[in-house]
Predict the 3D structure of the following.
Amino acid sequence: MAGPTNSRYREIFAAWGANAGAFWAEAAKAIDWFKPPRNIFDAGAGVFGRWFPDATCNTCYNAVDRHVLAGHGARTALIYDSPLAGTKRKLSYATLLDEVVALAAILRDFGVAKGDRVVIYMPMVPEAIVAMLACARLGAIHSVVFGGFAARELATRLDDCRPKLVLAASCGLEPSRIVAYKPLLDGAIALAKHKPEACLILQRPELAAELVPGRDHDWGALRDKVLAAGRMVDCVELAATDPLYILYTSGTTGVPKGVVRDNGGHMVALVWSMRYLYDIQPGEVFWAASDIGWVVGHSYIVYGPLLHGATTIVYEGKPVGTPDAGAFWRVIAEHGVAALFTAPTAFRAIKKEDPKGALLAQYDLSRFRILFLAGERADPDTVRWAESILARPVIDHWWQTETGWCIVGNPMGLGPLPVKHGSPTVAMPGYDIAVLDEAGQPAAPGTMGSIAIKLPLPPGALPTLWENDQRFRDSYLTQFPGYYATSDAGHVDEDGYLFIMGRTDDIINVAGHRLSTGGMEEVLSSHGDVAECAVIGIADALKGEVPCGFIVLKSGVERPARDIEAEIVQLVREHIGPVAAFRQVFTVPRLPKTRSGKILRGTMKKIADGESYAAPATIDDPAVLDEIGAVLRAAKPA
Ligand code: COA
Ligand code: AMP
């Protein structure tokens, strides 16, 4: 291990390695079970085994009820801070319980029961968290869809999980505009084959939505009625292995993957991480500046902090522009945040606006201890800058929607390990990580390879994809038998530190948002004038990566390429959503290909990023690479 350390990490990791069952049995004691687990892991169940197969529990009970029952009802559960709406609100655990029970009663009136799916299409408002917890209370499976996705993306998800009900808000708020959600929801329902039975619409004061008679219902009016009646809805006893939620994430095609999360393993893993990775005590304020539409939001805006009895922040704003680059420092100071978790892109945005961190001086950050970064590679420049202005530990950690919690990190609660810039540090207990070469053999230290996790995956990680065990096997388990393939590449050093260098598939990370270039290519090729296309992720100083499209027009197309390019930009916005940040597309005479017809996207990316490249031996015509370079050079501002 690099440098001296008093960390208990080695000892704890070794204890897990020696007896994973005993390790997770001990961690499971942090959860209140209806029926505690006797069998910790059943290797014969599910695709690769199931955690806590004989236990029963309820996630809402652990996240809310038990804190109230333990006498902590007055403790703040959630702080809503919206510079965009100009609103701040605090909900105690007792109030949160009342709200969750009221919504659970409403959902039950609509016939929602254990196993039913409920889609939540909401901005960052407390009601979205109440909605997730109300589903969890009933054993209904929620599927939250990020507000920056367009109608078609929502429709795909409706068709895949077939919800009984949709919960939505009338609008979301972005700095430049009010995003009307209702037309997007109506559009999605029109496009989808599956029609939900009803929609509950939260009317926000910024923009009221017109309700479809018979299908749409005013959430606020129903809530008031139920609260006045003082109805009670108990937590439903669920198997630990029952699904808590489905979260769709980009796959290598336009069809997203429905990552399933169970109840029991998820709770055990998240509580362990709150204590030993994030080093948070119950009652402290933990802020994940993300969105509930992403896994970071599920795990660390909603479930992790609440299961642990901490206070979470629901922030509806941006790191810059709401109103300035001091927004994060204001929230930290005002609410006494102990740890912040965000994506490096947020810090790049702050650095761009306030390179010296001058705005920090206005705020009292005395209760702030640690910054955690994840969601994309934390480039050493950004990490160093954050360290210098904050004078506190800046901790990178690596994980995925699929795992639900950290794979590689620096366990602050066990005592910090020395930080190496560019590395998220070491494997967490639960993860036996290997860097494999193309033949599936372990790569030597320092040598790049595919990062794989030896099965079984730990509690909290996905047991399968929604109603699609086969896709789960094909996507993750077949490339390296006995392992889960992460689709990330990297290397491990002699101290066991991992370095994550990038994806091996077509996934790109745009401002910490995970997107599929394959999905974008499907949209580009749907344009009538496009013969073929390629989309690559190119380096971007702010967002890490942004998509860049190349199109070849069908022969005989006479219209100006500029018009077609503008239509294509619009098409991606309509089909995938503004979050794709798809703004660049170039018309080229042809695409570089191998002799067998494979588009050389990797080489195109190197050209676009200004990196050195060698024309692959298998290239059909090397001159095409010069053509691509010329088009990109011509587009660059002088
Ligand atoms: N609902 C509707 N639209 C949304 C949205 C939402 N929830 N979130 C983003 N969008 C829209 C934006 O308005 C923008 O639209 P535009 O093209 O009309 O301007 C587009 O999607 C791109 O948004 P974004 O990626 O947020 O870029 P930005 O330029 O507005 O802001 C950052 C850049 C860096 C400030 C911003 O990306 C950010 O705060 N990132 C933090 C990282 C993060 O939260 N990651 C999540 C995983 S941890
Ligand atoms: P998501 O599923 O949206 O969380 O995205 C997961 C992907 O983001 C990973 O597979 C990585 O490619 C990337 N990623 C997340 N965190 C990190 C990190 N700390 N360092 C490098 N890449 C990361």
Remarks:
- The pocket of coenzyme A (ligand 1) is lined by residues 147-148, 172, 174, 176, 179, 290-291, 294, 296, 318-320, 343, 345-346, 349, 375, 511-513, 578-579, 581 (CB under 6 Å).
- The chain has a mean pLDDT of 96.
- The CA atoms of residues 295 and 401 lie 5 Å apart.
- The two ends are 47 Å apart (CA to CA).
